[in-house]
Amino acid sequence: MTTVVAIDPRGMEHCETTALGVLLRHEGLDLSEPMLFGLGSGLSFVYWDAKNMGFPFLGGRVRPFDLTRNLAGRLGLELLVQETTSPRKAWDDVAALIGAGRPVGLQLDSYHLDYFGSKVHFGGHVVAMYGYDDHSAYLVDTEQQGGAVSTSLTTLARARAARGPMTAKHRSFALTAPTDLPAPYGQIVPAITACANAFLNPPIANLGHRGIDKAGKLVRTWLQRAEDPRRDLPQAALLMEKAGTGGALFRNLYRDFLAECTGLLDSGHLRTGHALYAEAAALWTEVAALITTAGESGDARYLVQAGSVLGDLARMEREAMQALSRLGGETTGTIQP
């Protein structure tokens, strides 16, 4: 038995936007990856460290699945979310949707997937599933992971049942676009201002611009914090650049989103935000390189330099978001796409 939905299996840079792209193209809505990320108000920052963690984590986006909820709400899409503790019901939910000719989004732990190159537990990974047979599930993952891929039904079940940080209870989801779907570009300003306001007013010091400033102070201590600096620091830098972030801890994606928006809206505040994020993206890549060199050399001077750049980034991103937050009160001209 084989059940497969006809889809456009285009792999992108980031897992959640890749899955969203598959589901939305099936609904007749084809948006660029930066536009999906930006309309979902996906950009953020978190400095995450805890006693049970081997090493601190720098995150550059909102929590897993918040991007999907944001995007669906903003575009007026019907979002069907199903969660359960029962593996059998979890499979039946997915099989029913695919049997009805609809691709399905899945949140799972990528560690268990047959094709996944990096064997690291990550419970916030998202894929699109478009078919299965007696032995395998057919998925779309990021371009880095192969785009259209497959994994055994056994490993898929294991990945969906995993428990731990950022996991969900066999979460699956589907999107439906209404026949009178409004133009997505009309939601650009609300998406940008919501993202900016959250970034500028974080509830705790680990988030937003305050989190970047905190990271600038704490990164200087990472040689002492690491159990194995030659392993831990380059790994942290690799996650910033290569782990589905699109490079520069998601700043490349947001830079490109803002660039696309400047072709649709005539706004000085928007151009200011884009220019600052173009500069910030390059500096994030520089920070990752400095962290890697510090780990490989054991020389703390590179971490001092990284901390200084992070201080600049906290200021730069704060200024960018302050400009972008003013979009809501600005009269903007519309440029026809």
TrEMBL record:
InterPro entries associated with the record: BtrH_N, DUF4872
Pfam family, one: DUF4872
Record-annotated DUF4872 domain positions: 155-324
Transmembrane segments: none
Residue span(s) of domain Butirosin biosynthesis protein H N-terminal: 14-142
Superkingdom of origin organism: Bacteria
Protein's name in the database: DUF4872 domain-containing protein
